[in-house]
Write a sequence for this structure.
């Protein structure tokens, strides 16, 4: 039996199809909170600091305030949509129900870029920290890609073992990362001075607070996003949560509150101690520099930095979870090749999707790391970060459009209603759109954005020429189809 939705054709599948693609429920409120906070917490350890180099302290501070407003609107909107549409597809599911299969696929593909590339950014940070630490302690130097490969192998393996192990590890490593940040915050206070934060020499027409002028604020927006990037992944856990209707809004809102507090503490205290914002803005391991200032350059600082890798590991581990569920849900519905969504027969984890995402992320990082002849001398971490943000902001815009549209569709039960309503969603969507525009304006990182455009174009061609004729009525698609006739 087949059905059509516009130019997209669906096939009704038998029970055996979904049995081979089953998931297991486990997560509660604290697990979801840890998944959201853990996915983002590496942003306090690495990535945000590149914003100092392009915007100065004042530019990055203003950018962070703007981006925090965007994420508050985003999280409240997702907190309403997720319990109303509790499917693993998350953002793709919201856009699919609100605006049809093409919109759903565009949203899912944008998130796919975000979640596959974000671990590639983080693993560069892990490699930077581990390389510095092992060189300091043992005089051992390994090529960065070797650290990347080791990291992928360990944490993809943990995600494959089972959802119980995944979430238990997530809770532990997220709490550990927050403890390490708390040690840093407390230790940094006696060393803090705004003179360090404002040590970047102003360009012509700039000032100490805004050394690059107004353009520094806009250039810093993608890096401010790193303080919050990926908390929106929580809806991907909907089919593995015990009670997504109650637990999802709690996990999202407590998570964004935690991250806002952490982001401003880190921005002030890491930029505001020696060696200062100019050095921190160029470092692959900014927190390691801070620990050296607080504890000296001996073994103590290196050991603390080794523990600090927990923050990067928390995000690396949890976003591996996210890309696995994103690829799984898009594959289960037929947008991606269907063999990617088969789950492990015993462990009920999307092992194929997890491996596919790891291979792609690793190859992208390698291409930029060794592509100097093609790309020029570019910082691999910063380029990958902008690539991930490119996908993220497109997904944010689509989700906020979906939020407004879903409120016009009758018959959808909303157990949680956002107090910010359409206004919060529109503001969040507009900030995301402005950030998308300014992503193109930094020529040093533009090559990464072009790479994402190729990724996006290839994905759309695959769907237009092949996948849209062979879609499957997965839970997300059946829900959307059942509400299609009610849309005004």
């Amino acid at each position: 039996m087949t059905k059509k939705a516009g130019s997209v054709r669906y096939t009704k599948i038998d029970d055996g199809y979904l049995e081979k693609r089953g998931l297991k429920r486990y997560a509660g409120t604290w697990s979801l909170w840890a998944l959201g906070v853990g996915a983002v917490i590496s942003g306090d350890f690495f990535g945000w600091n590149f914003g100092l180099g392009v915007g100065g302290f004042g530019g990055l501070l203003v950018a962070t305030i703007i981006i925090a407003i965007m994420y508050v609107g985003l999280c409240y909107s997702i907190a309403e949509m997720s319990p109303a549409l509790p499917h693993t597809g998350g953002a793709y599911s919201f856009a699919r129900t609100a605006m049809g299969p093409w919109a759903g696929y565009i949203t899912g593909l944008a998130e796919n870029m975000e979640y596959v590339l974000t671990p590639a950014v983080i693993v560069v940070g892990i490699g930077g920290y581990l390389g510095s630490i092992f060189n300091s302690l043992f005089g051992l130097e390994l090529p960065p890609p070797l650290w990347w490969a080791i990291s992928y192998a360990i944490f993809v393996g943990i995600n494959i073992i089972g959802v119980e192990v995944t979430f238990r590890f997530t809770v532990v490593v997220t709490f550990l990362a927050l403890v390490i940040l708390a040690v840093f915050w407390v230790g940094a206070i006696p060393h803090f001075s705004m003179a360090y934060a404002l040590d970047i020499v102003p360009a012509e027409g700039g000032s100490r607070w805004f050394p690059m002028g107004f353009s520094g604020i806009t250039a810093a927006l993608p890096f401010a996003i790193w303080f919050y990037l990926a908390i929106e992944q929580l809806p991907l856990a909907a089919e593995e949560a015990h009670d997504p209707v109650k637990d999802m809004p709690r996990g999202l809102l407590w998570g964004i509150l935690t991250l806002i507090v952490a982001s401003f503490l880190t921005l002030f205290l890491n930029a505001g101690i020696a060696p200062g914002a100019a050095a921190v803005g160029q470092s692959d391991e900014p927190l390691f520099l801070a620990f050296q200032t607080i504890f000296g350059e001996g073994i103590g600082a290196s050991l603390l930095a080794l523990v600090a890798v927990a923050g990067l590991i928390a995000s690396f581990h949890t976003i591996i979870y996210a890309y696995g569920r994103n690829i799984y849900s898009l594959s289960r519905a037929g947008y991606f090749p269907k063999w990617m969504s088969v789950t492990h027969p015993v462990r009920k984890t999307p092992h194929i999707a997890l491996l596919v995402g790891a291979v792609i992320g690793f190859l992208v990082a390698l291409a930029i790391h060794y592509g100097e002849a093609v790309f020029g001398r570019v910082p691999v971490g910063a380029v990958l970060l902008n690539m991930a943000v490119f996908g993220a902001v497109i997904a944010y815009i689509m989700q906020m459009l979906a939020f407004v549209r879903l409120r016009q569709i009758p018959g959808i039960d909303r157990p949680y209603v956002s107090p910010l309503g359409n206004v919060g969603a529109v503001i969040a969507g507009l900030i995301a759109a402005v950030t998308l525009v300014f992503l193109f304006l930094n020529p040093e990182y533009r090559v990464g954005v072009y790479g994402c455009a190729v990724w996006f174009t290839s994905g759309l061609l695959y769907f237009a020429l092949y996948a849209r004729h062979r879609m499957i009525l997965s839970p997300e698609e059946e829900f959307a189809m059942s509400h299609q006739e009610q849309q005004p």
